[in-house]
Structures are given as C-alpha cells and as structure tokens.
C-alpha cells in the first residue's frame, strides 16, 4: 500500500522481487529503503538504463547490429543468483559497456542527440545523478 501524502509504502518483508539481472545495487545489497516509494523510482531508473543498453546493442549504426544479449551476459550465468549479481554490480561495480560504434555515427553526433557526442562519461554522470550516485561513473 502506498500513501501519496506521506510517501509511505508497505510492500511486506521481501524487497528483492523481480528479475535479478535488472535489480539495482541497493536492492541487491539490501540497502533500499523499503518504506519509501521514491526508493523504488530510483531502482526503476537502473532497470530502464539496462533496457536502453539492450536497445543500443540492437541499433544499426554504419550497417552493424549486434546480436541480442541480456545485461551482464559476459560476467554472470544465464540464470544468475542474487549472489552472482551482487558481486558483479555491488562489489565489482561493473556496468554494461556502451558499444564504441555508437560514437562513430556522424548523424547522431551532428545533431547532438541524447549527448552521444559527449561519450560514455556523459551518460555515466547523467545516470549516476538520476540514480542518487549509486552507479559507476563509467557507464
């Protein structure tokens, strides 16, 4: 139950619900404030960033399109455990790599769409800021 007036949230005792691969660092480390709805909005930003990463891998640039892979495909098993994801995201602070080919698309660079001309550091700073500093600045 959520109360908009007080931002109070009652979801029970288990905050680790959902697809493990998309869980935000504060959920994996069990540091999320389970009584505050705003905390869940921030975890949604993390998951949204991973969905955007998936889209960028499948975006054709200069005729190149990468095969679909889920986030962290190269560092965790196909069905990762909470512990697998916690190690990769919280301990090792890894984030998916943005394909370099996206920065060679002259149309996107010329138009300045979405900060593409600013490189990965721009995106890491933007997402880190939106996520309350919980993300690695390299993403």
TrEMBL record:
The keyword Manganese does not apply. GO terms for molecular function: ATP binding; transmembrane receptor protein serine/threonine kinase activity. It holds the Pfam family PK_Tyr_Ser-Thr. InterPro entries: Kinase-like_dom_sf, Prot_kinase_dom, Ser-Thr/Tyr_kinase_cat_dom, TGFB_receptor. It is found in: Membrane. The keyword Transferase applies. It is a single-pass type I membrane protein. Its main location: membrane. One of its GO terms (biological process) is angiogenesis. This is receptor protein serine/threonine kinase. It comes from Anas platyrhynchos platyrhynchos (Northern mallard).
């Amino acid at each position: 139950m959520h109360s908009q007036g007080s931002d109070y949230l009652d979801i029970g005792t288990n905050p680790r619900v959902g697809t493990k691969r998309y869980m935000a660092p504060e959920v994996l480390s069990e540091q999320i404030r389970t009584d505050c709805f705003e905390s869940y909005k921030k975890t949604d930003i993390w998951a949204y960033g991973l969905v955007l990463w998936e889209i960028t891998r499948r975006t054709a640039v200069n005729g190149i399109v990468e095969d679909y892979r889920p986030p962290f495909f190269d560092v965790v098993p196909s069905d990762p455990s909470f512990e697998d994801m916690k190690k990769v995201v919280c301990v090792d602070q890894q984030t998916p790599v943005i394909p370099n080919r996206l920065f060679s698309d002259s149309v996107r660079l010329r138009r300045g769409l979405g900060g593409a001309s600013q490189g990965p550091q721009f995106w890491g700073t933007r997402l880190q800021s939106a996520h309350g500093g919980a993300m690695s600045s390299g993403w």
